[in-house]
Amino acid sequence: MTTTTAPGATAGPPTADVRVVGTEPLPSPATLFEEAPGDPVADSVRRSRDAVRAVLDGVDDRLLVVVGPCSIHDPDAGLEYAGRLAAEARRLEPDLLVVMRTYFEKPRTTVGWKGLVNDPHLDGSHDIGTGLRTARRFLLDVNALGLACATEFLEPITPQYLADLVTWGAIGARTAESQIHRQLVSGLSMPVGIKNGTDGGLQVAVDGCRAAAAAQTFLGIDAEGRAALVRTTGNTDTHLVLRGGASGPNHSREHVQAASDGMAAAGLNPRVLVDASHANSGKDHRRQPGVAADVAEQVAAGGPVAGVMLESFLVEGRQPLDVAVGPSALVRGQSVTDACLGWEQTVEVLDALAAAVGRARRTDGRGWSA
Ligand SMILES: O=C[C@H](O)[C@H](O)COP(=O)(O)O
Ligand SMILES: C=C(OP(=O)(O)O)C(=O)O
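Above: inputs. Below: predicted complex with phosphoenolpyruvate.
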C-alpha cells in the first residue's frame, strides 16, 4: 500500500486525507482489455443487446427474464450455474429471453460484503485489482456459453472495466436517486433498468430514466485510468424495475398498470420489469414463485410487463459470510447475500413464465407482433 501525502501539506497537522490510510494504484481498463479482450464475444453481446431492446420495445413478444445469483462469490459455482441456465435458455428461447444475473457489486443497507469486485477473496483483503480481473474473466466465460449477462453498476468507474461484456444493466434501489448513477447510465451502451426506491417510491426511477436520457458531462476515468471529463449522448434504452419497498410489494396488476401509466405520462417506456425478489418477496425466496405466478397471469392477460427478475442459485436459501473466517466453510452454490431459489424451483418458475407467454399468444393477449 502506498501512503499518500496530502496535496499542499505544510508544517503542522494535514488538512486533507486525515482519515485516508493509503491508496494503491489499480490496473487501467486498457490493461485489463489487453489481458482479456472482449472480441471473441463482442458479436453475441451486440446481438443480445438488440434482442433485449426488441423485447423492451415490444417488437419481440417474448418475456425478458433476468435470473441468477444475488451475487457471484464463487466463480466456479457461478459457471456451473451458467452452464445449466444456458441449456434452459436455449430450450425456452421461443418464449423467453434469458439473461443471467452476474452481479459483482453489492450495495449494502449499512455494511457487509460488497461483492466480488470489492473483495474477491471474501476475507476483507479487498484485492480490487483481482476482483476486476475475475469479474471480467467470468463475464467472458458466461458470454462464451451463449448466455447474455446482466449486472448492477455501483462504483461509477467499474463500467470502464466490464461494461463491454454486459447486455443489461441495473441501477439499484439505493442509487436510483443518485445524480452520479444517472450520469453514468447516460453513457452506458446497453439497456438499463432503474429500480424504484427502497421506500417503494416510483418517482426516483422515473426521474432517473429522464436524467439518463439527457446528454451529460461529468468526471470519470478514460481507458488509461486517468481522471477525465466524460461527455455522453444520453441513453433512452431505460425502463422501470418494480422491486417493492418499505410500503410493501408492488407486483400486483394495479401497481404494474399505475407504474406503466406513470412512465407513459413522462414519455418513457411503459413496459416494466418486475423483480420477484427483494421487497416484492420480503427477501423470502420461497415467495418468489408466487410473485412470478402473479406476474405470469398479467403477462398472459397482455399486461405491460416486459420482463421478470428472479434471484436463483444452485442451492436454495442463503448462508452467512464471515469475512474474518473466509470462504472455506461455505456451502457450494448457495448465496452469501440475499436468499435465492434453488435450481429445480428456478426451472419450474421459468416453465411457468414461458407457458404464460404461450397463453398470451393464443388469446392474442400480448397484442405484439412477433
Ligand atoms: O440484493 C442484495 C441486497 O438486498 C442489498 O444489497 C442490500 O443488502 P443488505 O440490506 O443485506 O445490506
Ligand atoms: C441490490 C439489488 O436490488 P435492490 O436494489 O432492489 O435492493 C439487487 O438486485 O441485487
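The chain is about 35% helix and 15% strand.
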